[in-house]
Task: structure prediction
Amino acid sequence: MASTIFEKHSPGRKGYTLPDNDVDIKLENCIPTEFSRKEDARLPEVSELDVMRHFLELAQMNHCIEKGFYPLGSCTMKYNPKINETLARNHSFNNLHPFQDENSVQGALEILYDLQEALAEISGFAKVTLQPVAGAHGEFTGLKVMKAYHDSKGHANKKKIILPDSAHGTNPASVVLAGFEVVEIKSNDKGLVDIDDLRAHVDENTAGFMLTNPNTLGLFETQVEEISEIVHSVDGLMYMDGANFNAILGIVKPGEMGFDIMHYNLHKTFATPHGGGGPGSGPIGVRTDLAKFLPTPMIDKYDEKYFLDYSHEETSLGKVHSFFGNFAVNLRAYIYIKMLGTKGLRRISENAVINANYIQKKLEKYYDIPYKDQYCMHEFVASGVWQKEKYGISTLDIAKRILDKGFHAPTIYFPLIVPEAMMIEPTETESMETLDDFITAMIDIAKECEEHPELLTGAPQNTPVKRVDDTLAVRQLNVKFEW
Amino acid sequence: MPYISNTDKERKEMLATIGVSKFDDLLVNIPNKFLLQKDCCLEHAYSELEISRQISRLASKNISSAQANSFLGGGIYDHFIPAAIDHVLLKPEFHSAYTPYQAEVSQGTLQYIYEYQTMICDLTGMEISNAGMYDGASAAAEAILMATRKTKKLKAVLAGTINPLYLEVIKTYTVGVGIELVIVPTKNGLIDLDELKNAVDDETSCVLLQTPNFFGNIENAFAVEEITHSTKKALFIVAVDPISLAVINAPSEYKADIVVGEGQALGNAQNFGGPLFGFLAANLKLSRTMPGRIVGATLDADGKRSYALTLQAREQHIRRAKATSNICSNQALCNLAATVYMTLMGRAGLKEAATQSTTKAHYLAEKISKLEGFELAFTAPFFKEFTINTPKPAKDIINEMRSKNIFPGIDLKQFGHENMLLIAVTEKKRKCDLDELVKSLQEVYNG
Result:
């Protein structure tokens, strides 16, 4: 286990250089004593080499895409092209200040404008804002669009947002944050929205419906048209959670399937790095009549000149971020989309879907796959119930054993409607050999459950640390190092 | 097709294994009417060479602060960034990993977040920090929501001197959930303490102060704290510039309950305003109302020190509609940059950066105040940023300096202040850069 950087502290050691101060003014003459800090802030004193060794040591304890397969369902852990990193580091982009005047940032605005247009085209929406910086941030923004829409029509009663029980946890949390109430409906025995239950819950108070399509089981919601008719019949709006957009690029457009609002996860579908949890980007697209509610400013173009458009300030929901969203992330997505082109776009989803079905097919004898009578889209959900019932091995044990085999584990215990769930998403960038290696490992694990259960209950053994006690982390809360 | 491994031959083999003859057979669940009949209208696929040329072409349409003498701030600052930071950020183990849900293969991420939390606590003097928020503005908004949850009161009192962009984001987060915002008027570039006294009462959930405030002025946080805590429940939220904390009071000195701020200045490039990251720290008694991820130290099965996400019962993936926030990610790589930055700079380096920023700002302010036609807008003490009154619209000054590649500051007219320029100085400025601005301002006046 690596010691903390604070344990490497040696007073007087330096990891930086700065030029001498060439103005002759004393700090004491600038800041009154009463506002001066009493004791120096404690930060470690280490050399640059200490720092580089420390962070290399930490890095080596992480799994990552370059290290191996990362089938974390719903997260689309595809390869992040290196050219994006090189180009995003161009000084003429990363040294731009957001308060510069428009004339000096035309290149940046052109990129944002083109990205808005490309996302709109790919998804079938009229207008896109790039301001939200994460998927959940996009959900919040989309729900605020719904709020602004209903407010504009005087629908004070429309307080309820309906979502299926298979929805991501962010959906209900965003609903509450945006000032709505959550109504959860059931999925049917095919893993899809239960239309009867939807009808039973839709009424004049329904503000909208949030749906992930394909849903979190990796299944395409076949009845999407009927669903949107039901929701639209009470003037509710259809929101698409775009977490699974990687399944349908160039195959269908959400804007043509009855959805009114959608968020994109550029860090999933458009290959920007996940970064250990961000920064991502969660733009939203809307149909034409909802554009006036989007955050200010929009990026627009007039006569070959790009500008920040505040013209809809009166109707806008306001701002969700200080500036224009995560520009440097959006720049990477722009590069990626340019490199895909028309043909590449569809090719991504084809390969993502083939890869997922291939694993599903090859594992169906070894794990319970509740919806295996249907083809999945870009991911599928297996269940550890057989192993649980026969050998008392939990999905958590299986996940930890997968780590031992050199892979990242799937998303586990989600969606909530599948017991002992393992949500597996291979993405298009993985090769058949990698998938075969993973399949072999999963089959071996299924056998180990029967023959050597201790390998599972004692897993992981081959990782930088053994199984981590996360209840202890709550019981004896220790959130900063005492030094 | 770049980045896809499988060849056509392998695709065929896989389709055969699945039991279909062609890809479209897998799409049986999608109603025919929705299947696209024609391709999306994008361009041809660019090669690496072509996209590199395209990006160079677009880059040349920008003028960056690396090419200019920039005095722009307003929350985003051009502080020095040690080269080593980027080498850490580019390590794929940090770069292409995700949320550390599987702790055993994510100790690197978990440990640096723990170290980040420790440093934010050391800087602010607070007891607990989360792993980061989207930006300073959303961190301020979520702090107000925290105070609302904790106090069950719906009136939030905000200094009129906070960054107006924060205010806009706060409005978006608080409208529609029943929170009333009361903005305290400004007096001489500071919060009006008499007005604050009138604004707070026992129904107040919190007072939000920014110091240094939007105009660059250092507020009397001690006085604001006293007024805030004279009410029954109100929490004192303060938004700070992290660099300033090397030389200005730690928020614990004036008994802040929640501390937020924009973290970009800590080792992150300006990037046209994003990605940024917000920090949020508080007293331990508020831990269960905090938004976002928190990492805790624990033990593994061998009893070795290790780290895991903790207090997850607050979060959306467990609590769903009852979560403290919908936030799911932090801005991990930006937090990592900040962690490496604080580590490299250390106690002395951060103080040096803060000191040089302050003294250079004061040198510049003094020179400008002696120019005919210009004066400092306020007499309050300031840190690295200050406001001046200009003899003509600030926009004209900005335009006139464009040809010299000088960005003299932010035109405050967009925030309702005519003929005012907000000028920021960091340690990167040399005396000659400051003198160049002074000379140019004089020329603008002389016309």
